[in-house]
Design goal:
Chain lengths: 276, 283, 310, 283, 276
């Protein structure tokens, strides 16, 4: 088991499903002149669990928004290979901020995507309650967002993204606001689900440990301008469990990933560490 | 626990101050406005006396009160007529204002194309176009309603439009991602988000529909028995019956305040679970 | 009976007595008309309703609007003038150096309504040297006049002096404009040309009925008419009505001059021409208006109702 | 790169549609409102013709336009008079509305004590109290301003108050923690946060101060030479000069629209960096 | 070096400065009936670097707000021993959410606390620019919050809290949205500052590693109702550096802390894990 360094090619070595989406030379320049992404090439295969890892401000959220179609690239193209059959409303998205309806209670917030698909409260209730239980929020159905703690809000947001069982799940630091124990639990839950249904996950995280534990491919990005610094496969078999988490292999992988991340941060144009 | 007791004094001042203030505020909240109101009325009385203002110009509050009592039957039956127009036109203003705002929210095109007409309606002096209304509208109530509506609908339209356009970007993205239809976006996102703005507009429109009802009656004239407060005011003015004129004005003011309080309450009840403007200060 | 509507230019009052009388005692009905009277009011303008054909007859204040109608190419005519004199007065406080007509222009404020400002005030400015800048709108509340002893105010000789006396406690000086050169007919009956052409008998009936109504109202039993007035305008008092009728008679507003022979409603070409010339000179009316189009004498000057005068 | 070219068609439809729509929107944004305006005017003309409406009741737009041209000198000098009152009273409404809102924001007490008076001002018909104003105010401009101000200030007051109370709780906590004085909290937090609401109120007040200026002139009259549009309207009404009356109304409407556009622009410039309602849709 | 388990006593073993604040039997019940805190006893000494660790929703933020005076307890008292001399405006607070003025640019947001103390732009500029450099945001002075990434916003918030050099620094998961490398850097920076100036820090975190690395005392909280589960001193000498981070002692401490946290989570009334 080792980190397989891959060239910055659109094809990842470890992909095994058919191609779902390819980003080709994608760039994003905001109207204020900030280049958030430049020349990003990335292929996502069906069933991938892909992590985006990188320093703050390197364009991870921007990339996720591009993939979700919430933003359009200023250069390059997104190639949805199976676009004929792919429906954008089959994407689940966990925003970096909770993004809840402030006037609706927890139940209604999680119900929302189902409601938009036409499911009545009664029809949706079992799924909603199940998701709420998964994120340990049973009993808080009637609380409104301002009555929740930061982590609880984020969990509502996670429940909402997953309640539709989407084909593609885009998650922007979903577990960042959770304690490590709960986080591990949710990591395990997510992996279990993923193995069962093999949807595609693009997962933004700041945690090297989390990215290595969860994903079959890790994309490390660098900032100024945001770009893919290195991409590698994590060739550990699934299911991954607590044993894997404590294995020396995992530790080694993490250390290597860490080194890549350090490389990415240092490769950032001087300005990043100006102050020092 | 004695140790604690020993320390409490060090934080008492701050805490005690807060508690005292809270209690004061609870009482003051109702007492002070009342006191100020009474003070204002007393001042009015004093001004009349000190300046020897004759009662046909500005009657003393006591006289007005007396008139309010003596002419109660007449004034209240007129009040009912005015109130009827007020509430009907407020209802229409809500329907019209929100309806138009929703329409405008559908697309920038529609908004830019039809907002000018709304402005034209807002700025057209009713006195000037009333002859036209008078010619083409037969029903007296319809005439009055139309006039009052023209006066009242714009704040609701304008504020609701603003509210519909102030929806958090991320929430909008969320709805887009979930393939929400225009209608769903409106129903579940934009209308609730616009609520505080709409309710703000409603508070403005409440008073305006009252004044609109009065102005409409001024312009449209009264037909015999069904004359509202405006007719009373004109008549009282003409007859130099200042006490009755001011009694009518006081009635209008009281109703205005009442409408505002009711709308504020409604607004509070709708928003209290989530919007800053209505949240109780929980510390 | 044919239904017709007559629009007055004010709330029901004794100045409309003749018409109410004719309705109340069936004078109109006798010649085949079922007349409905709709009141005007301080801010209510009824003339557009006449122009649009929503009402059949409208009570004009003076002749200027008829001239304006010709000027604007509007086919509207005056068919009768039930007031020989405009009851419009200017009032002033006694003993304030405003006791003669010539003094009035020295007042601090002229409190005048919109209609007055657009008609006789123009004449007062240009002919008599009143200062246009001193005009303040009259919102039909005499309090500002009473409060300001140096002000003058317009009024109907039949109404405002009464109110001022009652509340202000003094009888103001009254200057009837008609006595100082404002010799327009007033309380005219305005009709669209179309009605004259197509239903002359209706016009005739209304004009005749009104004349008879006025005779009966002034000289006969007017209780029924007054009851109707009070029903339409609940704030009207018997005291006020009595005062009005007395003033109408005292100043010969309805029945004086030409009416002795021609009957109430009378108009003469010469007087209209002379008023027009005066207005042209005062630049209130445009020159070169064919004023023959502003009126017709076809329905009046027949001495109708003279027999009713006791 | 050929491979990419080969795939582009698969996403072209969506992208192309978007681009097409954007281009259309850029054009439509100005063309469509214009077209609708022209259509409305054409309809007005047709209605006049089809129903044989005589020009002294509702003149055809051509006639009004002609009058607008012929009487330009007269109308525009009147317009200037009205505009002067409009802008002065709008300025006063801003000062008064924001000033009162700031005062009310100081404490719930003050708000509950004095808001009723603001409502009384809002709902009192100017016609009814003009005699009082007339007796105690000498200067003509002051009278006009007072009347117009009474009409216009309330929406600004109401909306700004709402805005000042809608500040994010956490931000308020932040200021408290940093020991901000009331004044600092107002200056650096509540006023900026209330901006969108205030500007919404301003847009309503813009039209109201115009109509207020007109109504004020209706009620307070004009002094001789310096007569504004209201006098023109009254005069045209009495002189049965419908074309000129409508020309004056059209002028008022155009000014109303212009004021709204200017205020919208100002609002956009102030808010575009941060508030949703003014943000460009960046995708 | 070992975790010293301390009884739930108001006095912590490792404190060495004079007492600053004692929470005595503090409870907080929100008006909707949720008991956020119950019977919390906690002593904070001057110069402490105290971490609050615990599952999501256990009342960490609530406790911080109580300490800052943004909220008042429904039972019990907060005893500021030195209250005679202690000024509440000498507290720096990093909220769990960035809480920036949306209309002000980055510079103005960081300037704010100084501005409120009466410093002009020119006078404040050196401090502001230095803090911005410390959080790697040099060059973004003129960006408004909506143009920043999630992590960048949080860093602005951190800069703002520290620009006044407060005597007490309350931080609610300040580094949660940052990648591990940047986080380590900022950890080191914070420690360095703290050692130099010995202000008092109360630091909420979800990361066992972070809490052990940074603090001299760790308070582990449990939920339903929120309470202090266990409190212990971390008796490792300062300065702590990369060597400490890779030392087996550190790993052992972390493992033990983790166990305590697991204990806290499991001690939570059944409802917390209802769904499983
Ligand atoms: N709406 C916007 N307008 C202008 N610039 C933006 C906008 N959104 C993001 N940026 C800039 O784009 C860059 C990338 O932002 P992005 O949010 O993608 O970063 P990120 O990798 O998600 O960072 P983090 O981990 O902190 O969330 C940043 O430099 C940011 O300043
Ligand atoms: N304003 C409020 N009204 C009612 N309940 C509240 C309010 N704020 C917090 N709570 C409740 O209090 C409890 C503690 O919340 P708190 O925010 O302190 O948790 P926390 O430990 O900071 O969690 P996290 O790590 O997720 O931020 C939660 O159960 C929450 O639902
Ligand atoms: Mg991000
Ligand atoms: Mg928290």
């Amino acid at each position: 088991m080792k980190l397989e360094k891959v060239a910055q090619a659109p094809m990842a070595a470890s992909g095994d499903g058919p191609m779902l989406l390819a980003l080709r030379d994608v760039g994003k320049v905001f109207s204020n002149g900030v280049t958030a992404l430049s020349d990003v090439n990335l292929t996502i295969r069906e069933g991938d669990f892909l992590s985006l890892l990188g320093p703050s401000g390197c364009g991870k959220s921007t990339a996720l928004r591009l993939i979700a179609g919430l933003s359009t690239p200023t250069s390059g193209v997104l190639d949805w290979r199976g676009s004929g059959s792919f429906d954008r409303s089959d994407i689940g998205f966990v925003f970096q901020e909770p993004t809840l309806l402030p006037w609706a209670d927890v139940f209604d917030n999680v119900w929302l995507p189902l409601r938009l698909k036409g499911l009545s409260r009664a029809k949706a209730a079992p799924s909603v309650m199940e998701m709420l239980a998964r994120v340990h929020l049973t009993g808080f159905e009637n609380a409104v967002p301002r009555e929740l703690s930061g982590g609880m809000k984020m969990r509502v947001s996670i429940a909402r993204a997953m309640v539709t069982r989407p084909r593609v799940l885009l998650m922007d630091e979903p577990f960042g606001a959770l304690d490590e124990i709960t986080r591990f639990k949710l990591n395990n839950d997510l992996l279990e689900l993923w193995q069962g249904e093999r949807f595609t996950v693009v997962f933004v995280t700041h945690s090297v440990f989390e990215s290595v534990f969860l994903s079959n491919r890790v994309v490390v990005m660098a900032a100024r301008p945001g770009r893919v610094f290195r991409e590698f496969a994590v060739d550990a078999p699934y299911p991954r469990d607590e044993a894997f988490r404590t294995s020396p292999d995992y530790a080694a992988l993490c250390r290597q990933a860490s080194d890549v991340l350090v490389g990415a941060i240092n490769s950032t144009a001087g300005s990043h560490h100006d102050g020092h | 626990m004695t140790a604690i007791e020993g320390h409490t004094p060090t934080l008492d001042p701050e805490e005690a101050r807060r508690l005292r203030q809270e209690r004061l505020e609870r009482i003051g909240r109702w007492l002070l406005p009342l006191a100020i109101m009474i003070l204002a009325i007393w001042l009015w009385d004093r001004v009349c006396v000190w300046n020897d203002i004759p009662k046909y110009i500005l009657p003393r509050p006591g006289v007005v009160l007396q008139t309010l009592h003596d002419d109660a039957g007449l004034l209240f039956s007129s009040l009912l007529v005015t109130l009827r127009i007020t509430f009907l036109s407020l209802a229409l203003a809500v329907v019209g204002g929100v309806g138009l705002a929703v329409l405008f929210a559908q697309s920038k095109w529609v908004e830019m194309s039809f907002f000018p007409f709304a402005i034209v309606l807002q700025v057209t002096p009713i006195v000037a176009i009333f002859p036209l209304i008078n010619i083409y509208v037969d029903n007296q109530t319809t005439k009055l309603l139309l006039c009052a509506w023209i006066v009242a609908f714009f704040p609701i339209l304008s504020n609701t439009t603003l509210g519909l356009n102030s929806v958090d970007r991320n929430l909008r993205d969320l709805f887009k991602l979930n393939g929400a239809t225009q209608w769903q976006q409106l129903r579940y996102l934009r209308l609730p988000a616009a609520m505080p703005y709409f309710l703000g507009g409603l508070k403005i429109a409440g008073g305006l529909s009252l004044i609109g009802a009065v102005v409409a009656e001024f312009v449209a004239g009264a037909t015999g028995q069904s004359s509202g407060l405006a007719s009373r005011i004109i008549e009282a003015g003409y007859r130099l019956n200042a006490p009755r004129l001011f009694a009518a004005l006081i009635l209008i003011s009281l109703i205005g305040i009442l409408i505002f309080l009711v709308l504020s309450l409604i607004s509070h009840l709708i928003l209290r679970r989530w919007h800053e403007s209505a949240l109780k200060q929980e510390r | 009976n044919e239904k017709v509507i007559f629009g007055t230019n004010w709330l029901a009052q004794a100045e409309h007595g003749g018409y109410y009388q004719a309705v109340a005692d069936g004078t109109y009905a006798a010649c085949g008309l079922d007349v409905t009277i709709t009141q005007g009011g301080p801010q209510v303008s009824g003339r557009p309703l006449l122009l649009a054909g929503k009402i059949d007859f409208y009570m004009g204040g003076n002749l200027l609007s008829a001239f304006d109608a010709v000027q604007q190419g509007i086919p509207m005519r005056v068919v009768a003038a039930d007031f020989q004199k405009d009851p419009q007065v200017m009032m002033s406080h006694p003993g304030q150096g405003l006791d003669t007509w010539d003094d009035l222009k020295n007042a601090e404020q002229y409190i005048l309504g919109d209609e007055g400002a657009q008609t006789f005030f123009q004449w007062m400015v240009i002919e008599l040297g009143f200062d246009a800048a001193k005009r303040v709108p009259y919102t039909f509340n005499p309090a500002p006049f009473i409060a300001n002893k140096k002000s003058i105010q317009q009024g109907y000789v039949t109404s405002e002096p009464f109110a001022v006396q009652k509340e202000g406690g003094f009888m103001p000086n009254q200057f009837l404009l008609a006595d100082y050169g404002w010799d327009t007919y007033a309380t005219t009956v305005e009709v669209m040309q179309d009605t004259i052409d197509k239903r002359p008998e209706v016009v005739q009936c209304f004009v005749d009925g009104s004349a008879k109504g006025w005779y009966n109202y002034l000289y006969g039993d007017n209780k029924a008419a007054n009851d109707m007035i009070k029903k339409d305008n609940p704030d009207m008092t018997d005291e006020q009505i009595a005062f009005s009728i007395e003033q109408l008679k005292k100043f010969g507003v309805v029945d004086s001059g030409d009416t002795d022979k021609l009957g109430i409603g009378a108009m003469t070409e010469a007087r209209i021409q002379s008023f027009y010339d005066k207005m042209v000179k005062a630049k209130v009316a445009q020159p070169d208006i064919d004023i023959k189009k502003a009126y017709t004498l076809a329905f009046i000057n027949k001495g109708i109702g003279l027999d009713l005068k006791k």
